[in-house]
Amino acid sequence: MTLTEVAVEDAEVLLISADDDVVRARQATRAIAAKASLSLVEQTKVVTAASELARNTLIYGGGGQVRVELVRSARRTGVRLQFSDDGPGIKDIDLALTDGYTTGTGLGLGLSGSRRLVDEFDIRSGSESGTVITIVKWGR
Amino acid sequence: MVDRVPVLRIGDALLVSIQVDLQDRVAIQLQDDLSERIVETGAKGVVIDISGLEIVDSFVGRMLSSIASISRVLDAETVVVGMRPAVAITLVELGLYLDGVRTALNVERAFALIAARSSGASLVAQGAIDTDLPTAGTDP
């Protein structure tokens, strides 16, 4: 999926290295989503996706960071989140995006489920470069 | 941040009200605490009020499912109450159906379910869940 060209209006970078950083990532996402005038349901969806992806960054990526941005396109405002880690990378992205597939102990819904919850989803991964996942949720 | 969610005993049931965003380890601690308290008190039911939760992600969803399974094995029924509408919409889109978790709209109804069950009137309880209308006088 190609990501829409946007102007970034507000950005914050948070480290993800412990349990409570996942909570902080959720809170930062919520704050920006409200600022971007997302509806309550849209806010809930993007915060849930943020929670899943932040936990993945922590557990599978061995920690990393998230960049939380308020973005604007020609017509609307939204939230863009970019999660990055220097972990081992995802060997088979298609497989990792399958519902129920997990290499850990979770339900295997984190990646596939969060893709359904957002409007744009981009994933890049390599064994040398780690994993970078970018998602965008637009206000209506 | 809180380290533990308090578990209250009310009659035959245990009541847990989750008021704040949960860290993963606090969720795991709650699961352990509840299992112990069920055995210790011989409780017949566990009511979990999640009206304070702004999101339920796959981690918390899995915790609710395992609390339900564990308590069933320990002869207690788990009822989850107070889910916000936006959370319900997001859960389903995420792909989480909370299998095996019984839900009720509020704490009062949850306690009624558990009371009916512990008085041995499980069939009556079943009827109480499926319909709120008295059966008398509904004949055509």
Structural features, described:
The complex is a heterodimer of chains A (140) and B (140). By secondary structure, chain A is α+β, with helices and mostly antiparallel strands. Chain A has helices at 19-35, 40-59, 93-96, 110-117, and strands at 7-16, 64-72, 77-85, 120-126, 130-138. Chain A has one domain (7-138): Histidine kinase-like ATPase, C-terminal domain (Heat Shock Protein 90), CATH 3.30.565.10. In chain A, α1 packs antiparallel against α2 and α2 packs antiparallel against α4. The longest helix of chain A has 20 residues, at 40-59. Chain A is globular, with a radius of gyration of 14 Å. Chain B has a single domain, classed as STAS domain (Transcription Regulator spoIIAA), CATH 3.30.750. Chain B has helices at 24-41, 58-73, 85-94, 107-118, 122-130; strands at 7-10, 13-17, 45-49, 77-81, 102-104. A five-stranded mixed β-sheet of chain B has the order 1-2-3-4-5, sandwiched between helices. In chain B, α3 (85-94) links the parallel β4 and β5 (102-104). Chain B is globular. Residues 128-140 of chain B have low confidence and may be disordered. At the A-B interface, α1, α2 and α4 of A face α2 and α3 of B.
Can you say what the CATH homologous superfamily of chain A is? Histidine kinase-like ATPase, C-terminal domain
Shape summary of chain A: globular
Which structural class do the helices and strands of chain A define?
Answer: alpha+beta
Low-confidence stretches of chain A: none
Give me the number of helical elements of chain A.
Answer: 4
What is the CATH homologous superfamily assignment of chain B?
A: STAS domain
Total domain count of chain A = 1
- Uncertain spans of chain B: 128-140
Mean pLDDT across the residues of chain A is 92
Major protein interface: A-B, 27 and 24 residues
CATH-scheme architecture of chain A = 2-Layer Sandwich
**What is the level 1 CATH name of chain A?**
Alpha Beta
Q: What is the quaternary state of this protein?
A: heterodimer
